[in-house]
Amino acid sequence: MSIKHSFLLFWAFGLIIPLTQSLSAQTSVIEGIVVEESTGDPIVGANIFIAETAIGTTTDQLGAFSFETDRTDEEELTISFVGYQTKTVPLDLTQEQSEFHFHIELEPDQYKLDDIVVATDNTLWLESYDDFKREFIGSGYFADLTTIENRWVIDFTRESGGALYAMASEPIIVENRALGYRLQIDMEDFIWKLNSGEGHFYFDIDFRELEPRNQAEYEQWQNNRQQAYTGSLQHFFRSLYRDELSRNDFEIVQQGSTQSADIYPQDRNTNVIQLLTRHRIPMSKFNREVKAFYMRGPVDVLYGQRSFRQDTRKRAGLRPEINNLLFLVRDDGTLVNRQAISVEGYWANERISTMLPSNYRP
């Protein structure tokens, strides 16, 4: 399986600074039911959230919803579901009441756009969401502990050929309890060909540290981060930048073989200068914070220690996607021209649930 992996334009890192709250802060319960306007039938899986926040939930099998908030302002409650017109209702949390009840009626809004059919029922949206989550978040232990908190901001369309497109009306909020990060993701592009298992997604991402529940969780996060980093694409590009590939158990070989190949560092020349200028990188940063490399064609990368009896190293692939085969690498192991290369092999399995900030150090 191949994937044009997202090479991040920037990775920001910060600390969550908790706001001091009064111990007597009021908690309000927001609850109600969402039905179709014409029939009164419950709508399952509708999204209900306080506008411009990640506070909300989805309706259950009876169309009912309930969630809590400690906000105390005048807000708007947004109710959305694919195939229905989005509705907003006022929510005055300044009132001295602890429970707010709503009966929401949504009006159908079905449409088509060329050969792209928009899902207009709960089953299709949930199927699309499951496909999206599997490819965006990933699968396995780390993914099981990673949650999209505001899935209602994501809409989907499907082509007749099976391609899935995802769009987000605002940043996607993800909590990764496997690595200890809260992520804010600005998704630029997502398309996945479900029939062939190929696709690409590009995004910018902001990392914030979570507060561990206890020392054991903190230590588990450190172990998981080390595991996610070791042998990763970030680890490889950082090693390439520092000329430490062999030291860190990476070997570049010809595609599909074990014969040696190479990725060549480039001095400042006309093509490199044009690339730096295109990405607005000052010449003073060249070979200090950014280096240029050249590929003659596709290569494979082996990772791990080679055994005398059997070569059990992991194999990944790098494929140039531009004509001049040049790419720029920052000292933190991120690509400047992130669409210059696609990846295959075990790197193609890297997803949001295994992502680390660029300043991570094992």
Coarse shape: elongated
Structural class: mainly beta
Average of pLDDT: 84
Multimeric state? single chain
Please report the total strand number as a whole number. Answer: 24
The helix count comes to 5
Please give the domain count.
Answer: 3
N-to-C span: 29 Å
List keywords for this structure.
single chain, 362 residues, mainly beta, Immunoglobulin-like, 3 domains, 14-stranded mixed β-sheet, four-stranded antiparallel β-sheet, 24 strands, elongated
Give an account of the 3D structure.
This protein has 362 residues and is mainly β. It folds into three domains: 2-15 and 112-221, no CATH class; 28-106, Immunoglobulin-like (Sandwich); 231-354, no CATH class. The chain is 14% helix and 38% strand. The protein has five helices and 24 strands. Strands 1, 2, 10, 11, 12, 13, 14, 15, 16, 17, 18, 21, 22 and 24 form a 14-stranded mixed beta sheet that branches. Strands 5-4-7-8 form a four-stranded antiparallel beta sheet, with no helix packed on it. The radius of gyration is 24 Å and the shape is elongated. The two termini are 29 Å apart.
